[in-house]
Give the backbone structure.
Amino acid sequence: MWTDRHTPTRSASEAVTTHSFTGASGWYSRRELLSRSFNGIGALALASLLADEPRSASAAGDSGSLLAARKPHFAPAAKRCIFLFMSGGVSQVDTFEYKPALTKFADKTVPPLPNLKGEIAANLTKNVVAMPEVYPFVPRGDSGRHVSSLFENLGPLVDRLAFVHGIIGDSNNHGPATLQIHTGSELQGNPSVGSWISYGLGSESRDLPGYVVICDPRGEPTNGNGCWSAGYLPATFQGTPLNSKGPPIVDLNFPAGMTAARARRELDLIRRLNERHAAERPELRDLEARIAAYELAYRMQIAAPEAIDISSETEATQRLYGLDQPHTRGFGRQCLLARRLAERGVRFTLLVHGVTNSGEIGWDHHGAIRPNIKNVIGEVDRPIAGLLTDLAQRGMLDDTLVVFTSEMGRTPFRQLGTPADADKAGRDHNQYGLCSWLAGAGVKPASDAGQTDEFGVRGIGEEILMRDFHATILHLLGIEDSALTYLHDGRFKRLTDLGGRVLDEILA
């Protein structure tokens, strides 16, 4: 629900309801007619906009208003967000948090630490031993911040980043932790960050989705599309996946014999049928989102081929993202597509690297962290640095927010392996130690929010909760988290639930 500082306002009378279309008069025959007549547009990979029959009706007015750009609560620093998710749990003490105490206590028992509970507290009662960073840290930038020496390309850009240390999650397990970083809740069925932002701000583009998802070519994160679901929001605000290999969008081009003019005529027929159906059933508001989705599908067939054609980029730009090397090509392509989509008005782009529960092609390093973290950092280091550099060169970093995060941190003590067999050693989950960074619009360069203890286990001082992290992202986009609500099951829901604290320490 928008406050009086924002329009449109949703009133309490516009309650969310759930409808079943099973058995509705003419439904299945109409669907079959649309499917057959529309010559494949319905099979477009915008299916995510139409998937799983929208569960709730929106009170946002006509179908156009669902996607139209809307004013933020206050002047935003950022117009759009690129969200880099590293699936599996990035080890903060091997990447961005330099902890000399781990060398001091190497192979010695980690002393008792306060304010811990659950699995990690239990592990600390088992005489676990400290394990130093698996690759040395080196000072980078004018600030001299120590980061892993593996970040050969991102390291020199460290002064552009603002770090958030010791973000606390509610779970020490991948499934609920992954849901929480993406939706604010450990439970299934809640809208993702990108969905909330699309719902609140609409789309800057008429021809492309407001929210796009590009996963690792090798698989999806835990919970799959639950990470980019619209949950109880209208389905229009769900993330639209692009393929990470092969054609980014299946069946995007018009089939043989189909022209744009003919497709437009068929779409107009479908729209008239849909509008007639909707007029006879005014209580079924879900059809508005479906009409808007068909319109967007048509416009995408005109605009999307150019937007996703990375072959039009110069060789120098492709090298900047690492497309010239097999090891960096996968994530480099994702990052380059994200920049192209951002400059064409896509509001929120989610990039996923790695597959959860995999150490070799993800960040879940229970064992063999030394060889595996070198591999995964090598895959993302050059592409991320290329993305930041390219955005800055184009003047886009001034109004684009870039977020790097994972679902949890990892422990400072050894899991598996021995000092004599270091390549087998790994680290366990740590729900208290997530380290993330932000860069770009509205972010104070070379700043920090929070601080972790000398072992990097958890934050010291004022706690930073997941909802604080989310509230800060919303704030940078001009949204007050307490005012972005949606009436569902008799309660005004929001991304930050009880409300979050904006992390002013990292704001410019």
User: Anything to note?
Assistant: The chain has one domain: 76-249+316-506. Confidence is low (pLDDT under 50) at residues 1-64. The domain at 76-249+316-506 is CATH 3.40.720.10 (Alkaline Phosphatase, subunit A). The two ends are 28 Å apart (CA to CA).
